[in-house]
What does this fold into?
Amino acid sequence: MFQIRIHGRGGQGVVTAAEILAVAAFIDGKYAQAFPSFGSERMGAPVMSFCRIDDKFIRLREPVMDPDALIIQDPTLLHQVDLFSGVRPSGYILINSSRSLEDLGIAELISRFPNARLRTVPASEIALENTGRSLPNAALIGGLAALTGILGSSAVTEAIRKKFPGKVGEANAAAAEATYQAVASGRAWVSKETRHAGTY
Amino acid sequence: MPEPIEGSQAVAAAVARCRPEVISCYPITPQTHIVENLSSRVRKGEIGNCQFINAESEFGALSILIGASAAGARSYTATSSQGLLFMAEAIYNAAGLGLPIVMTIGNRAIGAPINIWNDHSDSMSMRDAGWIQIFAETNQEAVDLHIQAFRLAEELSGPVMVCMDGFILTHAYEPVEIPAQDQVDAFLPPYDPVQVLDPADPVTIGAMVGPEAFSEVRYLAHHKQLRALERIPELGGEFRERFGRAPVGLTEAYRTEDADTIVVALGSVNGTIREAVDELREGGIKVGSLKIGLYRPFPTAQVRAVLHPAKRAIVVEKDLALGKGGIVSGDVKMALRGLPTIVQTVIAGLGGRSITKASLLRMIGEARAGKLDEPHFLDLNWTVIHQELERQRRQRRSGPMAEHVLRAVNAVSSKIT
Amino acid sequence: MDDRQRIKFYQTGTFTVGNRLLGEEDRTVQSRMERTNSLNSGHRACQGCGEALGARYAVDAAMRAAQNRLIAVNATGCLEVFSTPYPESSWRIPWLHSLFGNAPAVAAGVAAALRAKGRTDVKVIAQGGDGGTVDIGFGCLSGMFERNDDVLYICYDNEAYMNTGVQRSGSTPPSARTMTTPAVGEHPGNLSGTGKDVPRIAMAHGLAYVATASVADLRDLEAKVTKAMGISGSRYIHIHVPCPLGWAHDPALTIRVARLAVESGLFPLFEAEGGKITGRTMIRRKVPVERYLELQGRFKHLFGERPDRAALAAIQSIADAHIAEYGLVDKGTSRGDSSGT
It folds into this structure.
């Protein structure tokens, strides 16, 4: 069983992110269970969602306390909530940020997980470029697929198109694909503007 | 083909297939997604000949269905927690009048203190009102249950409550198969009322009944409930034939044949319990589990048959009878009367506190070692308890208790760094 | 020819001369052989019960208008209790009693079921006393109004919770004695400045039709029910029904008491559509409120050796305000007559 925990704030599509994961896993022929941890409907409050992926029926019904992978959609949570609680020693950690670990002030925190496979990726910026909104949830699923290899990129984009109809789906799928490439290639992502300006 | 879908949406799809004629609704977390989805389906014409009514309160919502059902319409609503309590008078009225209303309960704790998360206190508060109560373990079961519920309600001419854990099931996204319309139609014929308001054949419904007849009327209602114990397995057999899936039964035993300890529970926690059972079995520990699907009427004979060979039954329940302890464990004890099986009460999951496999493993170990208090409160923070009791002892005007406990568990996030 | 005998019709403007002098179509439902007698005899109402009278008048008129395809939903209360003493029922129509506070909602559900089944030919009425309508059923009532459910709601207002032994309701008038507003202390009887005007509240919901009626005027009551039955959506009729027991008046005087309430101005008869007054019944001969109050034991404490002039004046000013508000007295022709009817 592979367990993922997603952290973000209300209004950032954290719950939808887990659902996209579940749909993608299903497309890939796996069994998945996704659910949120809840509070009342309120923008900006810290929220978590969970997804379990397995080859067989998942009976367990408890929050993911020892995630194999962690997605952090909003880095402002880093110093407010114990996001890394229970992360497995060789777990995957994907952080939505264009800044470095030092700049984020978590280098010391990260040293607790020497074997973790960690990446930052500017998913909000990628989302903004592709969809016109800085909602990073779908993009980050693309990034997670690349980081963990647990899902195929095409399963992710197909899941996104299922969740969001029409142009919105296409745009988010493109953002996910771009994030997938950014993480898979290991190179820093550069915005279109920068690319066109030819400054790199 | 199963599709990944949110529990609420799956239930709404199943209810839509059952061709309800009148749906009333009043919003309350966590069932709201169900009625929202149904309102959309009605608007789009997906459910033919269906009236969707936005009621002014839950009391209004169920009252509307009392009228609708008495006039011969297949009737449905959903509620939780405070909403169920607000319609309490109508709950008893619907059962007493013998109206086949089906209602989903998205199980949620009852305040004060106000709490929107899952436990079974709401359904438990109405357990003796005369509604059939069945608890779903998974969203597939929830879907299948609603289809069986309409059939059962209309056959017996009495209301049925389908209970599913709020958030844990209602908001969980997992693969569920929604049966096709023709399959449901073959299983669920149009509603043929036992009594109906019809100008062509007038009847008076709802007379006052005095001491000379009330006991007999109540006994007949009790008898009707007991008939469900026979009817549900029969309907289940028919369900399995038509839909190719196991129906929700009265109870479901797991690895209990040679078990010395059997964990008993209602609802979704059974999944986690089975994980714990398998892990213990791998270590050679003879543990099993018994899921109670039908809670009212209580499947006394089945519970007794499964539990009596075991040394110990641990009833894990998401409810608390203040001043007494367990509710379900009381039912289980009654079922085991005269037998030496120890019944252990474990109060867990109140107000949405997660019941984890780790805690269950620890608790089962302690129970088997005879070290568990009775009733046992799983994962209770005794430090906070003692702190709060001491605070109240020190000061007469000790202030609102809940707020102080929240502060003690550091749930008040007013720190600014 | 000039010596032709002239017959003086005192009650001009009404038809109380006698049904036999009227054309077929103008006769009351109650005078017809084919009236359904929906609330049949054998019920257990008190002698002189205004509510039993009002219900029979109203439901028979509704049945006629609905061509005998009517379903009635009844709140808990006097009418429900005295009409269905198990195992008997005096209702000849399909009739449902659920709870005290939910008749409007239950009726809305019946209407929805009929609509779902395409049975728009069957009509629905809901009935309740003032308790079940003005107080405990108020939330459901407002919900029904707001949704414009296709129900005619009839309130039989005897101004207190009579079935449970005469307790004060939101409809109890000022100074009235009830078991919970006893005639003792500094302000005997019901407090002034309290109470709800539900017909006006119904108007504020913008209902297609709202009317008040009285058992003193059968023809007017039947006409209003008939008119309401020809309109769809939520409709509300508020009928004043004296209660000999609770009001402590001679049971033989039920209709007279009801008429005096109207003629004093305390119970105005009017109609409203879409929130605006569209009709009123003029007071033929205005009477001072004392004529009405002095017949009832529940106002006894206002009279006697030391009459409570302040309270009586306050009640009179309520009557006068109604008269002004609804234009109930034709200033040119009214004759104040203290001799009573």
User: Anything to note?
Assistant: The CA atoms of residues 317 and 328 of chain B lie 7 Å apart. The first strand of chain B starts at residue 3 and ends at 6.
